[in-house]
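Re: Re: token formats

Sure, here are both.
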Amino acid sequence: MTRLPARILPLLWLLAVSAVAADLPPMVTSYAEKPVQHFNRQLDKARREQASWSESPEQISRHYAGAQFTLIRTVQRKNETLAYLSKSSLEYYQQVLLILTLQQQGHHWALKRARVSWQCKRGQHFSTAPCH
């Protein structure tokens, strides 16, 4: 986790507002990596059993994240798809953002990376800073 100097925060706010206006992905200043190896084994098994959720990046993303998360958007880049999923947490009045990178391998997909970040205040700024 990288902490940013306080003088950078006003610049981040300006970038976040610009991102909203331009319909860009949310501003993430830090995130935590989540393991994906066990899920990829489940995905391989589901694919062999022809489970419907194993066929598309959107369905795979929803399955990984679980029912509490909502798929916000997907972005296709060459043989990769980025999936942005969000969950509101009323206990801490924060929003949790899950960013998944799925990689196409032939006709199949694998989860390459899973990152999580959260938002303690309204706006587009997400980090791993504790919410007070």
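Second one below.
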Amino acid sequence: MTMRQIEAQKEWCWLNNVQHEVRTEKNIRTGPFTIENRIKILKSITNQEKPHFLQDVAECIDYEKISLKLLCNKLMKLSVYDVFLACYWLYYQGRLKADIDSAILNLDMEVSKIEPNKDS
């Protein structure tokens, strides 16, 4: 990847309010569950349209960590599958943090909102 491509990506991300991060093979293989979790996320967002309830889920996530189990309990009107799908989308959009490197995505996984990048 050239610096020109990276700069174009940064600009697009800034314009679309999305966090930009360059990932290398070393970044991707940082933990035992990284690849499996990323594949799960990518399969879900490629095979499902962006959920209409995405914002409802986003509004229940704060800057402090919350387990997916507690999040599902807060969003009882949605199925567990729907909550996970929304979280996958939010992670993909760079709006949600989760430690996908050291644990399999499950109800015990903790997620939190990503603070907007103020220096972009």
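Residues 17 and 33 are 28 Å apart (CA to CA). The radius of gyration is 15 Å.
- S.
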